Amino acid sequence: MIQIDEIRLYLLRMPLVRFFETSFGRTTDRRILLVEVVQDGISGWGEVTAGEHPFFNEEWTLSAWEIVKEYVAPRVLGKRLASAAEVAGLSKGIRGHNMARGGLETAVWDLEARLRNEPLWKRIGGGARPEIPCGVSIGIQDTVDDLLERIDTELKAGYRRIKLKIKPGWDIDVLRAVRKRFPDIQLTADANSAYTLKDTEHLKQVDEFGLVYVEQPLSHDDIIDHATLQQQLQTAICLDECIRSPRHAEQAIAMGACRVINIKLGRVGGFASALAIHDAARDANIPVWCGGMLEAGIGRAHNIAMASLPNFILPGDVSASKRYWARDIIAPEVVVNERGMIALPEGPGFGFAVDQQWINELCYLRETLRA
Predict the structure, then answer these.
(1) What are the domain boundaries of the chain?
(2) Residue ranges of the alpha helices (H) in the chain?
(3) Whether residue 264 lies in the annotated active site
């Protein structure tokens, strides 16, 4: 039985070790919203993966703070729950704001696993493999030479897949240069909705590069146009931003809008929704992989658990802590071995210790909510 006594919110500012640029713009530091849920002195932790601005979707860190505080937390505090699987339903009346809802939902899953003294990956039905394969997402660089150098560094570190951010003016010629230098690597491209169907002839050129997929080339809320574009491309389309629920995944699969799906815990509202999307894709023989949102260690640890589910066949964006942070908020930090793999942690919950002292130093806004 779960009955949460307190919910603690922390807003942190964490500088990235290197800027990260997409078609949305360049990020140099992250504002991270953490959710701690407490029952009988035991804590579960979640991370709200919204960005600093409402560019990926309608959410941003400060809006998520208010949504969690005013709408999500009151629906969960003090309720008697048979399991963490019930949490998503408590906030389903809130339209959108999946990242705010998911940040609290994942914290309760972590709490439940800790109360049961078992790994989170086991609690959600994962553990299909003892290690998860890792890829990296490389943002838009200042020059192509800078990009080639970054790719070489990541390949030497063992990463199994390279994903490049693209946008108009930084796409075909860049991919061509990368393929010339690295002809045999697993390569993907992520457009973050930077194109329209008017760019179909231009996008057809990606077929020459042997990409595993091209990710979300069209609008963030579109499925229909992606189905039209997929008919024109040999390259598989992977959908990201527009898959916000199991129903969206089912519709996209039925329409032939994609051949791959990226699952992000925050984007879909937490584990309950992610598990349903995973199962729908599995039943349709559509592979999935775990996307990233520049998470700190808590969100990264949740991603590791999710990526151990059976249909997470493709390498995801879960990578080592040191790629993003001079010091992460968990211990030990996430490490990728020389084979490009992360071992599943064996401890209870998400399997890492929370560095409370470091969180306190980084925190510039906090609040405790009680039933």
Answers:
(1) 6-117+356-365, 122-343
(2) 61-67, 73-76, 87-90, 98-115, 120-123, 144-156, 172-181, 200-203, 224-232, 246-255, 265-268, 271-283, 297-306, 356-362
(3) yes
What tens-digit pLDDT sequence spans the chain (371 residues)? 999 999 999 999 999 998 777 877 788 889 999 999 999 999 999 999 999 999 999 999 999 999 999 999 999 999 999 999 999 999 999 999 999 999 999 999 999 999 999 999 999 999 999 999 999 999 999 999 999 999 999 999 999 999 999 999 999 999 999 999 999 999 999 999 999 999 999 999 999 999 999 999 999 999 999 999 999 999 999 999 999 999 999 999 999 999 999 999 999 999 999 999 999 999 999 999 999 999 999 999 999 999 999 999 999 999 999 999 999 999 999 999 999 999 999 999 999 999 999 999 999 999 999 98
Q: Per the structure block, which two tokens stand in for 46? A: 């979640």
165 is catalytic: yes
Cα 321 from Cα 332, distance rounded (Å): 10
| 3 state SS of 35 | strand
DSSP state of 323: G
* Catalytic-labelled residue, pool 79, 122, 156, 165: 165
**Both ends of the chain: CA-CA distance in Å?**
16
Please say whether the beta carbons of 288 and 281 come within 8 A.
yes
Q: Please give the CATH topology (third level) of the domain spanning 6-117+356-365.
A: Enolase-like; domain 1 (3.30.390)
Please tell me what DSSP assigns to residue 236. P
Reported as a single tens digit per residue, the pLDDT across 36-59 is 999 999 999 999 999 999 999 999
Q: How big is the chain by its Cα radius of gyration, in Å?
A: 20
Quote the tokens at residue 43: 């804590």
- DSSP state at residue 197: G
- Joined tokens for residue 130: 């003892």
Tokens standing for residue 4:
């949460």
Q: Look at residue 20 and give its three-state secondary structure.
A: strand
The catalytically annotated residue of 69, 92, 180, 264 is 264
In sequence order, the 6+-apart residues with CB closer than 8 A to the CB of 57 are 50, 96, 98, 99, 220, 241, 244, 267
In the block, tokens 């809006």 appear at 63
Q: In CATH, what class is 122-343?
A: alpha beta
